[in-house]
Design goal:
The chain is an alpha/beta fold and 377 residues long. 35% of the residues lie in helices and 17% in strands. The strands form 2 sheets. A 7-stranded mixed β-sheet has the order 1-12-5-11-4-2-3, with helices on both faces. Helix 5 (174-185) links the parallel strand 7 and strand 8. Helix 5 (174-185) crosses helix 12 (327-339) and helix 9 (267-286) packs across helix 13. The longest helix is centred in the last third of the chain and has 20 residues, at 267-286.
């Protein structure tokens, strides 16, 4: 189902200490404990690049948004290691952490953010809300990292979910849409607005979900990492990994999206950021343990607390970083939202502009990626 040319990596093995990342949608500043990351080597700064003769870019700063979720690993590691800044030749990064997709989309559409790491459902909603005028998806970032975790005393099989209370991060968010579609394919019925039906879908902020699970007010949750692994550490059991539902076991969980105004006025800066994300994903692939520690260090810097090894280790293993936006899976997720009657059928033509990404990939000797027919004409 996903487009070809995936540059991905299984985020696995190692101990922990790193930066901000899943989910669509799930903001996890509250999960965490653990060991601290080590500084492996000095970072090259953008200023030093200019001093060495690098060409100064057209903007003095670029405002980049992301979530403190492991599904935003590219952002976390790229910022922590200076791999994005290194490509900017003096243009300063102004990072901004968000806890939900709608607030990040509002910042992009409102002009207070230039580039964002964000999930597919907010990307679709933001594109449609602006009638295709304000946003473009310019790269992939991550796949996977979403699990259904349940109380094993109450739920032993997937059929046992009927009549139970299952949390998702937010109405209409990526996990909510996927769960509603799964319920529909089971032949069960749930009202998408209230969440009431054969399964009670309880929309719960990821920061609150672990406590709700421990208190017994929910029986399980369809959530991104590291919330899923936090629930497992609290006695939950993984009943389903969402990758099992996809033909190629890959689906977009995080995109890179840009304001069209910023793209038009500062294409050189956008290209430089993409050079940084591509190099970041390559570095994560080559250094999985160091990358995990780096991500945890960034999470600790953002939230004040790193993730414990028992949380970050399994969470890291379930996420793939990828330059490929897996565009065909975004279309599928859009169709699921329509089917659930959360949105009307959107016109997604033009939601992607992969021109600069493919330029960067080609220059790096990597295969180009596809927009699945959803690029600007």
């Amino acid at each position: 189902m996903p487009a070809t040319g995936t540059t991905r990596t299984t985020l696995r093995r190692g101990i922990v200490a790193a930066a901000a990342l899943p989910l669509l949608i799930g903001a996890l500043a509250s999960c965490g404990y653990g060991s601290e990351a080590k500084k492996d080597e000095p970072k090259d700064t953008a200023a030093s690049n200019v001093a060495d003769g690098g060409k100064k870019l057209s903007a003095s700063e670029v405002r980049i948004g992301y979530f403190p979720n492991l599904t935003h690993a590219t952002a976390l590691v790229g910022l922590q290691e200076g791999l994005i800044e290194k490509e900017l030749n003096g243009t300063k990064i102004k990072p901004q952490s968000f806890n939900a997709g709608p607030s990040e989309i509002e910042a992009l559409n409102g002009g207070s953010l230039d580039i964002g790491f964000i999930g597919p459902s907010p990307s679709i909603n933001g594109y449609v809300k602006s009638k295709g005028q304000n946003l473009r998806i310019i790269s992939g970032s991550a796949s996977g990292g979403v699990k259904l975790v349940v109380n094993p005393d109450k739920i032993k099989t997937l059929d046992d979910l009927k009549g139970k209370k299952i949390a998702t991060p937010q109405k209409g968010n990526t996990q909510d849409v996927a769960f509603l579609n799964w319920i529909s394919e089971k032949g069960w019925s749930v009202d998408p607005e209230s969440g009431k039906g054969d399964v009670s879908v309880v929309r719960t902020d990821n920061k609150v979900t672990p406590d709700a699970f421990k208190q017994g007010s929910i029986d399980g949750a369809w959530v991104p990492e590291p919330t899923a692994s936090k629930l497992v550490s609290d006695g939950g059991s993984v009943l389903l990994d969402e990758t099992a539902l996809w033909p190629d076991k890959k689906f977009v969980i995080t995109n890179v999206i840009v304001s069209q105004k910023f793209l038009k006025e500062h294409a050189d800066v956008v290209e430089a950021v993409l050079k940084g994300t591509v190099k970041t994903n390559e570095w994560i692939n080559a250094n999985p343990d160091k990358a995990k520690a780096s991500a945890n260090a960034k999470l600790a810097a953002d939230s004040g607390k790193p993730l414990d090894a028992k949380i970050i280790d399994p969470a890291w293993q379930s996420i793939l970083v990828t330059d490929d936006p897996l565009a065909s899976t975004l279309k599928t997720e859009s169709d699921w939202a329509v089917k659930a009657k959360l949105i009307e059928q959107p016109d997604l033509a033009g939601i992607y502009d992969l021109t600069l990404l493919n330029k960067v990939l080609k220059a790096a000797g990597k295969p180009e990626v596809s927009d699945a027919g959803l690029g600007a004409k």
